[in-house]
Design goal:
By secondary structure, this protein is α+β, with helices and mostly antiparallel strands. The chain has helices at 30-43, 90-99, 118-121, 163-166, 193-199, 209-222, 248-262, 282-288, 318-336, and strands at residues 2-8, 20-27, 47-50, 56-58, 63-70, 75-78, 81-85, 102-103, 124-125, 128-129, 134-141, 146-151, 171-179, 181-182, 245-247, 271-274, 277-279, 300-302, 310-312, 345-347.
Length: 351
């Protein structure tokens, strides 16, 4: 277990932003993780848990407390059952499942971060979410002071949300267990329209697993969503805003606003999600509100590849990033009456 003081946190995040931590501890076993958490809780010391740092916006003043980097390792495949230590690199784990001929997470290739973060955010992309394959999450319960195992149902998954995100001070994820599918080397049913179009198949069809993974990686790279230290479009947290989910009444009001703003024939993106609710596209809202690819003149700008990503062009501060985010939020609200919600977790700052 490594311990540093007044340690920079920016290098531990994909934004490369944020000030130092008073204390930075790197834990490589579950027991070490639990020991650091217990020590911080007993002393009343603020605790920041860091995995891959791909979903963090840390303030320029840093973090006055203990920052814990979860660097645990362990990948076990038993038939179609997969168990990952929280510190495993997610993209590497997806590659291993594809090599093993198991379907279920192949369309989540290229998503930066650690395995332990995936159930917290209910990570999803290109028609798949981890909630479809997670069977159990092993976590340390800071309230009960014990290690617990939560079933899929107990995780309370929803769109980019979970029990862990709803109560962020309670659980520290240690291990994640998945049930994958052996479909004779084929992917799960292709559900995302863009992926199906590029693959040349109808939605619901299956393709060879390596083909599905390679296609998703290509699509993500084209949007600056695969980490590349030389490409400032990837100095981001990926999608900065979640796609809004509206009630039927809210969607009717939104469509009216959209037609007033863009013309009578405008049909905004609409994806029914059940229970009288419709999801629309945050990227569409941002673009149509006037924040196009590459928008901005300062060190924090919208990605040149995707309007949903806010990026650090190399010299930005967290305040530069937040100023841009606030401008986007205000512009979308003024144009369409919808308030965008940030997807990354903010530490010591807020929109």
């Amino acid at each position: 277990m490594q311990e540093l003081h007044d340690a920079p946190l920016a290098p531990l995040t994909t934004f490369r932003l944020g000030g130092p931590a008073t204390r930075l501890v790197t834990a490589t076993t579950d027991d070490e993780v639990i020991a650091v958490v217990r020590e911080a809780d007993s002393a009343g010391t603020p605790l920041l848990v860091i995995g891959g740092g791909s979903n963090l916006v840390i303030g320029d003043k840093g973090f006055d407390g203990t920052a814990l980097v979860v660097a645990t390792k362990g990948l076990t495949l038993d038939g179609t059952r997969l168990e990952l230590a929280a510190g495993e690199v997610w993209t590497d784990a997806v590659a291993r499942t594809v090599e093993a001929g198991l379907a279920g997470v192949e369309c989540l290739a290229g998503i930066p971060g650690s395995a332990g973060a995936t159930p917290i955010q209910n990570v999803g992309a290109y028609g798949q979410e981890v909630s479809s394959t997670v069977t159990e999450v092993v976590a340390y319960d800071r309230r009960a002071h014990e290690t617990v195992t939560l079933t899929n149902e107990e995780c309370a998954f929803s769109y980019r949300h979970s029990r862990f995100k709803a109560d962020p001070e309670r659980y520290v994820v240690l291990r994640v267990r998945f049930a994958l599918e052996d479909a004779d080397g084929l992917s799960g049913p292709v559900r995302y329209a863009e992926t199906a179009r590029v693959l040349g198949v109808a939605p619901g069809e299956r393709v060879p697993l390596p083909t599905a993974r390679a296609t998703v990686l290509k699509l993500r790279a084209g949007k600056g969503m695969v980490l590349d230290p030389e490409d400032h479009d990837t100095w981001s947290a990926g999608s900065f805003f979640t796609n809004p989910i509206l009630t039927d009444e809210e969607f009717v009001t939104f469509r009216t606003r959209a037609r007033q703003h863009l013309g009578a024939g405008t049909e905004p993106p609409a994806y029914p999600v059940g229970e009288g609710r419709t999801k629309t596209s945050a990227a569409w809202l941002i673009d149509k509100a006037g924040f196009t690819k590459g928008y901005g003149t300062g060190p924090a700008r919208i990605s040149t590849k995707h309007t949903l990503a806010l990026t650090n062009r190399g010299e930005a501060t967290t305040e530069d990033l937040l100023a841009l985010a606030r401008e986007v939020v205000a512009g979308v609200r003024e144009a369409f009456g919808i308030t965008l919600v940030n997807e990354p977790v903010t530490i010591g700052v807020g929109l």
